[in-house]
């Protein structure tokens, strides 16, 4: 019996992934809040519930055949080792630069300080503009950095903009639009092709375009 392991991203993406999977007839058959490996209503399919940033690693090494994670994570990870066959159109947001609403214009003498958890994406963005910046790696609460003088700007995900607004920050530039993607292990795509393709086709049929 061919088995399939699908890695799902905890948090916001999971909230959008479960209804999508339900639409194609795949439902967890266990406590999704507690279990890290969850059986499903299909005896040969199980789910792994892990951090979004770990999904590419699990899929790349074949610990999961397929996975759902954000385009932000894939761009930061460098997605060459994975297939990325489907934009799921869920967990839509944008990767943006933001600063304090009342920040004076940057003097251009000192290097701009950028706080982010997306070091690679941020480096690439400023390198493309020919601007050298000082990057500060944070793991969360990026919005705090400009308020306490840790950084001039942040690079973070923005959805409604409410978090920025609540912290007196404004979005100054959109780097890229983001959504969650289905990724597939390269070997699984060959060895389990019929099963992987079947689930990809079902998903593709329920994805909202645009
Ligand atoms: P919002 O206040 O709706 O703009 O949401 C912003 C906060 O939610 C920030 O802390 C973001 O890092 C986080 N966020 C927004 N959209 C996503 C997403 N699709 N996936 C993960 N985190 C997100």
From TrEMBL:
GO terms for biological process: L-histidine biosynthetic process. Pathway: Amino-acid biosynthesis; L-histidine biosynthesis; L-histidine from 5-phospho-alpha-D-ribose 1-diphosphate: step 1/9. Keywords: Amino-acid biosynthesis, ATP-binding, Cytoplasm, Glycosyltransferase, Histidine biosynthesis, Nucleotide-binding, Transferase. CDD domains: PBP2_HisGs. It is found in: Cytoplasm. Gene3D superfamilies: Periplasmic binding protein-like II. Pfam families: HisG. Residues 51-204 form the ATP phosphoribosyltransferase catalytic domain. It catalyses: 1-(5-phospho-beta-D-ribosyl)-ATP + diphosphate = 5-phospho-alpha-D-ribose 1-diphosphate + ATP. GO terms for cellular component: cytoplasm. Its EC number is 2.4.2.17. Its main location: cytoplasm. InterPro entries: ATP_PRibTrfase_cat, ATP_PRibTrfase_CS, ATP_PRibTrfase_HisG, ATP_PRibTrfase_HisG_short. One of its GO terms (molecular function) is ATP binding. Catalyzes the condensation of ATP and 5-phosphoribose 1-diphosphate to form N'-(5'-phosphoribosyl)-ATP (PR-ATP). Has a crucial role in the pathway because the rate of histidine biosynthesis seems to be controlled primarily by regulation of HisG enzymatic activity. Belongs to the ATP phosphoribosyltransferase family. Short subfamily. Lacks the C-terminal regulatory region which is replaced by HisZ. Heteromultimer composed of HisG and HisZ subunits. This is ATP phosphoribosyltransferase. It comes from Stenotrophobium rhamnosiphilum. The gene is hisG.
């Amino acid at each position: 019996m061919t088995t399939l392991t699908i890695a799902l991203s905890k948090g916001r993406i999971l909230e959008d992934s479960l209804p999508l999977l339900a639409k194609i007839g795949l439902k967890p058959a266990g406590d999704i809040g507690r279990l890290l490996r969850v059986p499903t209503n299909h005896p040969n399919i199980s789910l792994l519930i892990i951090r979004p940033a770990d999904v590419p690693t699990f899929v790349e090494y074949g610990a999961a055949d397929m996975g759902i994670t954000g385009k932000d994570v894939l761009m930061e990870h460098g997605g060459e080792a994975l297939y990325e066959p489907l934009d799921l159109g869920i967990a839509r947001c944008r990767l943006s630069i933001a600063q304090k609403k009342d920040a004076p214009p940057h003097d251009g003498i000192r290097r701009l300080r950028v706080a982010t958890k997306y070091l690679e994406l941020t480096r690439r963005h400023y390198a493309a503009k020919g601007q050298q910046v000082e990057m500060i790696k944070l793991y969360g609460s990026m919005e705090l950095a400009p308020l306490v003088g840790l950084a001039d700007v942040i690079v973070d995900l923005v959805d409604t903009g409410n978090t920025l607004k609540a912290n007196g920050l404004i979005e100054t530039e959109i780097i890229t639009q983001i959504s969650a993607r289905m990724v597939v292990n390269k070997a699984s795509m060959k060895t389990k092709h019929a099963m992987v393709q079947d689930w990809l086709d079902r998903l593709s049929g329920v994805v909202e375009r645009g």
